[in-house]
């Protein structure tokens, strides 16, 4: 299995937007030169995920000041994610990746339900920061729901990387 490294070109993926249109990550990056924070999360049913996404939304101005666009991605069904996005008034895109075309190339972990019972098969949390040159400059891959960086941790990380990036 391929393991992503910092400095690697971010893998491309094409998934459907909330409105059903096709979204290509690399095509998007060609038109949008901001940093991008890919937030892989478990699903609408996960209270920790809901808290993380709400916290990111509460700090959206900080991410805008850092010229960083958030894209949230889950293996949950589209209708569940739309309900969650509306409930929490999330301003960033939330994508359904039921086929794992976005997550697998990044090495996102998947819970298969064999070791312990937890909502069946689903993607686990992961974060990837992609710079304006399509390079992965930071990542955090989890194998469970807890231990995610806070919005403040991410702010510090993004600020530091931008200051020291070559």
Automatic annotation (TrEMBL):
Entries under InterPro entries matching the protein: AhpC/TSA, Peroxiredoxin_AhpC-typ, Peroxiredoxin_BCP/PrxQ, Thioredoxin-like_sf, Thioredoxin_domain
Domain of life assignment: Bacteria
Gene Ontology molecular function terms on file: thioredoxin peroxidase activity
Catalytic reactions on record: a hydroperoxide + [thioredoxin]-dithiol = an alcohol + [thioredoxin]-disulfide + H2O
GO cellular component terms given for this protein: cytoplasm
Domain Thioredoxin, first and last residues per copy: 4-163
PROSITE patterns reported in the protein's UniProt record: THIOREDOXIN_2 (PS51352)
Signal sequence, start to end: none
Physiological role: Thiol-specific peroxidase that catalyzes the reduction of hydrogen peroxide and organic hydroperoxides to water and alcohols, respectively. Plays a role in cell protection against oxidative stress by detoxifying peroxides and as sensor of hydrogen peroxide-mediated signaling events.
Family, per entry: Belongs to the peroxiredoxin family. BCP/PrxQ subfamily.
Protein name: thioredoxin-dependent peroxiredoxin
Lineage of the species this protein comes from: Bacteria, Bacillati, Bacillota, Bacilli, Bacillales
């Amino acid at each position: 299995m391929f393991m992503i490294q910092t400095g690697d070109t971010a893998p491309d993926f094409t998934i459907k937007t909330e409105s059903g249109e096709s979204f290509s990550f690399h095509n998007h990056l060609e038109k949008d030169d901001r940093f991008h924070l890919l937030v892989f999360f478990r699903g609408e049913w996960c209270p920790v995920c809901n808290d993380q996404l709400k916290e990111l939304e509460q700090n959206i101005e900080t991410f805008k000041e850092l010229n960083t666009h958030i894209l949230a991605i889950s293996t949950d069904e589209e209708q569940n994610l739309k309900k969650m996005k509306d409930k929490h008034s999330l301003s960033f895109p939330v994508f359904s990746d039921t086929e794992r075309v976005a997550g697998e190339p990044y090495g996102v972990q998947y819970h298969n339900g064999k070791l312990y019972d937890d909502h069946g098969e689903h993607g686990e949390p992961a974060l990837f920061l992609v710079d304006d040159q399509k390079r992965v400059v930071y990542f955090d891959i989890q194998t469970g729901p807890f231990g995610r960086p806070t919005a403040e941790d991410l702010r510090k990380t993004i600020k530091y990387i931008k200051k020291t990036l070559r």
